[in-house]
Amino acid sequence: MRAVLILFAFLLVIAATCVGFCEGNPNVHCIETDRQALLKFKQDLIDQSNRLSSWVDGEDCCEWIGVSCNNLTGHVNELHLGLISSPPDDDAPDAAWDAYYRSQLRGKINPSLLELKHLNFLDLSNNGFVGVRIPEFIGSLKCLTYLNLSRAEFSGAIPHKLGNLSKLHYLDLGHNFDLEAKTLQWVSGLSSLQYLDLSETDLSNATDWLQVTNELPSLVELHLSECHLNNDPSPTFSVNYTSLAVLDLSRNMLPSVPTWIFSLGSLVSIDLSYDRVEGVIPNGFQNFSSLKFLDLSSNLFSPSSIPSWLSNLNQLEFLGLRDVSLQGNFSSVIGNMSSLTHLDVSVNQLEIVPKCLENVCNLREMDLSYNGIDHEVSEIIESLSKCSVDRLESLNVAFNKLSGHLTDKLGQFKNLTILRLFGNFISGPIPFSIGKLSLLKILDVSNNRLNATLPQSLGQLGNLEYLDVSNNMLEGNISEMHFSNLMRLRILSASNNMLTFKPNPSWIPPFHCDTIYLGNWHLGPQFPQWLRFQKNLSSLDISHAGISGVIPNWFWNLSTRFGYLYFSNNQFMGRISYLAVTAISIDLSSNQFAGLLPQALSNLESLFLSKNLFSGSLSNFLCNSSNQLGYLSILDIESNLLSGEIPNCWKNLESLEVLNLGNNNLSRIIPRSMGSMRNIVLLNLRNNGLFGEVPSALQYLTNVIILDLSQNQLTGSIPTWIGDKLSNLLVLNLHSNNFQGQIPYQWCALNSLQVLDLGYNNISGVIPKCFSILSSMAIKNKTSNFVAMRSPGGSLYFLSALLATKGRDDEFSTTLGLVTSIDLSANCLTSEIPKELGNLTGLQSLNLSGNLLTGKIPESIGNMKFLESLDLSMNQLHGKIPSSFSDLNFLNHLNLSYNNLAGQIPSSTQLQSFDKFSYYGNHLCGPPVTKNCSTNSETHDVPNC
Question: Angle 556-558-563 (CA atoms, 0-180°, nearest 5)?
Fold first, then answer.
């Protein structure tokens, strides 16, 4: 939270004008013309929360809410109609946002305000005048000294007549909906202006902004945040801003720090954050000896060490250096900044010595997250407790390399409201003293190695709103006492621990959460009855929770605002005819649900129903006009009992990115309309009863990464257009079909291909030599171990594929990006193995078994140093095993059986570790086969069955 800087004299003026508001003369009543003007003004307003209920004709308008009169004349001189309450947090429940919107004034601004001849103060901030332009007549309110229209959702061009307000000291038009100004020349008329805020106004065409504001003699604060100032003016005039103390140019597109800033020695606050500034951090900042606020966060500075001059800014109270490519040890700098109250150096590569924190006694907020700090967490807590224990309000050291245990001293930080320790290596229990942090609102210790059980003292944190202990090793039983006083809790995230919670069936939770994540807890076997009291619930995860039986009817009536429901990997059963929730994502996979596929509402974006007992056809689910699923991006119905044909209505599902219909009983042909799913990245139709040719319409699926049509009865030639059109393919699986013809040479253009499986077809011809240019199979050290997309809600969804390697089928998900494999087994391929295959030096699995291949095994196969599985069995290969096989150090599956190979098996640790059946049916000698190479006698290897 940024410190409020009281910097200018006009606040004294405002305080003086408030005397009439706070200490009015009871003998003075409002002027009738003023009262009538205010009533006309009210008529054009929409006031859903009755904020202006006191504005009644016949009553003294000086007593009305938001109205202040001169205590001598009775004239209305101030209107305080700004909404005092701040907007809710982004993750606040809908009810909070609804209440906020209702409390805003809306409608139009009636020109009756012109009749208030003595009005000097007008505040309409934080209201909802959506689509309304700032009225030009406001420029005629000549007595105004204070005008605040910020965050009121005004739009359009700023009227130039505001420049007539020559007495104006304070002007705030910032953070509106869509304001713009092509010039700021009108501002030059505001000769008394001390405060100007035009933040989020489009000033991309107002190239005169610097010259105009520079000429305002009394200007103390200038706020131009997010104004599209993408130019860096190189002024031909002298920039001196004689009175300027606060300068905010954040969130613009400045290519560099404007050099004229360094001539403004009176500045005490500089904000250049999120400006995409490049180059090095300038040394010119060291000349601002009185600087109290400096924020250079989230720019594109070159990697550098900590600027040594920072330690000279000993009056600095706020320092923001988030994500500016800093490296090295920060200890010496922070140790000299005794005035600091707010410090943010997150997202860098910094290290500190915890002892340096002992001298920062005024610290209220500190963010050291996403660095490389490698210390015991207890050292940081110990050092902070020396000096700032009574002041610290927010501590964030997430995603570092902190280890060790949390200590009881944590309970001494009585003013702590935010504690974020997630993403470290902290072990041991959460200390019981955590319950003493009575002001704590946010506690996040997720993704650590915490063990033992949760302390019951957590239940004493009456102000706690956000609790995240997920992804630890917590275990044991949780009781109602753990939640006894958590009346304000909104987010409870504790998945992936080993905790058990089985409260009394009549227990009523004290909280009303909108998010509850308890995946991998032991909650069953009964459905948790206490959930029926969570009326605000929008996200729920009770997957892997040991729950069985039928989902109770009351649950589906609990809320129509569910965003995310995760019920997978339980033993739920029964039928679900209708998913009567407006959820974005629903996961019911790996249960025992039966019956027809449920109907769903149209806003659904991802639906996981795999590994259940759903039956019937897809047609009613996908093609029913009352079941429009136009927003659906992920549909996974794998491994059910679905039957019938694949319907021909895929034009209605053009948003689909993942479609998995594998392992069902679907039959007939692949419909042409599937080619309309232009956004698809994964299409899985494996293990059904599909027949006929692959429709050429699938060539329009140009974004597809994984295409699996294996284990069907598809026929015809292998489509040539796969190589021409599907250039993004990473996995292509056509295993176990009836394809025939030759492998098209066009497939050699698939530069992204890492897995190719054509095994068990009727493919003839030769192995294309140009396979050697499948470049993704030649990469030795891959940098990405997974293939993922953003799922609805923003989390990563890992694409997966079932692949045949090492003689078995394995599913790959989080490691799919590391897999490289070619399987051409059980076909009718002829001629020799191309020596060019040896160029695929990143290949891990090669299966050419069960073909009619002849000739010798190429010596170049030994170049495939990363091979883990090699199967050349049941061909007509002859000659020796290449000596280069001795270099295949990662090989753990080898099958050369049933060929005409002869000679001695090369000596290596790997080749002698396989049993003799890897070499059976050849004329080989030497270990591990029983034939001795020193004799001419033959010993036939017979399987020991």
Answer: 80
629-654 in b/e form (b: 16+ CB < 10 A) is bebbbbbbbbbbebeebbbebbebbe
pTM above 0.85, yes or no: yes
Average pLDDT, the chain: 91
Measuring CA to CA, which residue among 876, 812, 883, 818 is closest to residue 848?
A: 876
Question: Per-residue b/e over 751-766, b at no fewer than 16 CB within 10 Å?
Answer: eebbbbbbbbbebeee
Give DSSP secondary structure letters for 167-190.
Answer: T-SEEE--S-SEEE-S--GGGGG-
Residue 717: count other Cβ atoms within 10 Å of its Cβ: 13
pLDDT digits (tens, 9 = 90+) for 518-556: 999 999 999 999 999 998 899 999 999 999 999 998 998
Contact between 390 and 361 (Cβ < 8 Å): no
Spatial separation of the C-alpha atoms in residues 179 and 199, rounded to whole Å: 9
Rg (CA), the chain: 36
∠ Cα 47 51 55 (to 5°): 95
State the pLDDT at residue 233.
56
N-term to C-term CA, the chain: 75
The neighbour count for residue 40, using CB atoms within 10 Å, is 14
Q: How far apart are CA 580 and CA 600, in angstroms?
A: 7
Are 467 and 494 spatial neighbours (Cβ–Cβ below 8 Å)? yes
pLDDT digits (tens, 9 = 90+) for 866-881: 999 999 999 999 999 9
Q: How many CB atoms lie within 10 A of CB 889?
A: 11
Pair 352, 331: CB distance under 8 Å: yes
Higher pLDDT, 95 or 144: 144
Burial (Cβ within 10 Å: 0-12, 13-18, ≥19) of residue 484: middle
Are 475 and 497 in contact by the 8 Å Cβ rule? The answer is: yes
